[in-house]
Specification:
- The chain has ten helices and ten strands.
- By secondary structure, the protein is of the alpha/beta class.
- It has two domains: about 200 residues, Rossmann fold (3-Layer(aba) Sandwich), CATH 3.40.50; about 100 residues, 3-Layer(aba) Sandwich (Rossmann fold).
- The strands form two sheets. It has a six-stranded mixed β-sheet, with helices on both faces.
- The longest helix has 19 residues.
- Bound molecules: pyridoxal-5'-phosphate.
- Pyridoxal-5'-phosphate (PLP) binds next to helix 3, strand 7 and helix 7.
Length: about 325
């Protein structure tokens, strides 16, 4: 059993999306609300952090360090989890540093994290230096990887498959669709579905990487999870479903399809998507329905991974 510090609001609920289903003309759409995991506006990293912070506490650490983009949801949830557990938190954030610290950045400060700014090319080196400095000062630092995506963090989504099974039992979806980036969420879901022998297509909509890069990364992490916590099989890249068709002009650059998805979810279901991850996954979902990849008689579970705080980032004000 992995050490775990319980702070997520679980199980997250699964809801039907009747108005979106009707407007898009079927298939039947459901949503799993991991935007409601409860930690300072929630998101998928909260699940991972239960195990990562659990390990940090088990090792007697008093400080966690991690890294991400200026508007990183992962960093904001790490800062919140650290605050909740009485741990220090150092975040190495990638430039450009916005003039006004809005959204996740505002919350990082509010949650008491120490921020270090760096260029992307130096990110890992600066993180390592911050770790060494903390050791020299007599602290017991614990390094949380980018996106919380190592086997310990991703195990949370292996466990989340069991949570979903408890909720849906024999009425399982044909597809699970969600935003995929550092691959931990997808690797956990894939390894979990493999462990339970589920016939569900698990499709990650990439927000930044090519299909080739992301399938390789997810397959290796899913295999590690399977060997450590599952039924010890290799999960090959060919078994990983990723679409990189919706990348547009790249990470965080909002486009008309992202905007339409954000508006449709909000106007039809009162559900907020974010401009970087779930808006793009929503755009993929809508396109895959319109192009007939998802059949009318199928059941689709859109796994909401959070990130809604970014709606309030300066960069996106007036853009949606
Ligand atoms: C809102 C949101 N959705 C999806 C993801 C992607 O999750 P993963 O990094 O596990 O692929 C992230 C990662 O930061 C995120 O913040």
């Amino acid at each position: 059993m992995l050490p775990r510090k319980s702070f997520a609001h679980l199980p997250t609920i699964i809801e039907h999306l009747p108005r979106l289903t009707k407007t898009l003309g079927g298939p039947d759409l459901y949503i799993k609300r991991d935007d409601q995991t409860g930690l300072a506006t929630g998101g998928n990293k909260t699940r991972k952090l239960e195990y990562l912070i659990g390990q940090a506490l088990a090792e007697g650490s008093d400080l966690v360090l991690t890294t991400g983009a200026a508007q990183s949801n992962h960093c904001r949830q790490t800062a919140a989890a650290a605050a909740r557990c009485g741990l220090g938190c150092t975040l190495v954030l990638v430039e450009p540093r916005p003039e006004i610290p809005t959204a996740n950045l505002f919350l990082d400060n509010l949650l008491g994290a120490d921020l270090i700014w760096t260029e992307k090319s130096n990110r890992d080196e600066i993180l390592h230096q911050a770790y060494q400095k903390a050791v020299q000062k007599g602290r017991k630092p614990f390094l949380i990887p980018y996106g919380g995506s190592n086997p310990v963090g991703a195990y949370a989504y292996f466990a989340a498959v069991e949570e979903m099974l408890g909720q849906l039992s024999d009425d399982l979806p044909d597809w699970i669709v969600f935003a995929s980036s550092s691959g931990g969420t997808q690797a956990g879901l894939v390894a979990g579905a493999q462990y339970h022998q589920l016939d569900i297509k698990i499709l990650g909509i990439s927000v930044d990487e090519t299909e080739e890069v992301l399938t390789t990364c997810v397959s290796s992490l899913a295999s590690e999870i399977s060997h450590q916590y599952g039924n010890k099989v290799d999960i090959s890249p060919e078994k990983i479903l990723v679409s990189d068709k919706y990348l547009g002009d790249g990470y965080g650059v909002i486009n008309e399809n992202d905007r339409e998805a954000i508006r449709l979810f909000a106007e039809l279901e009162g559900i907020l998507l974010d401009p970087v991850y779930t808006g793009r996954a929503g755009a993929g979902l809508i396109d895959l329905i319109r192009t007939g990849v998802f059949k009318k008689n199928e059941k689709i579970l859109f796994w909401h991974t959070g990130g809604i705080t970014t709606l309030f980032a300066n960069k996106y004000l007036g853009e949606i």
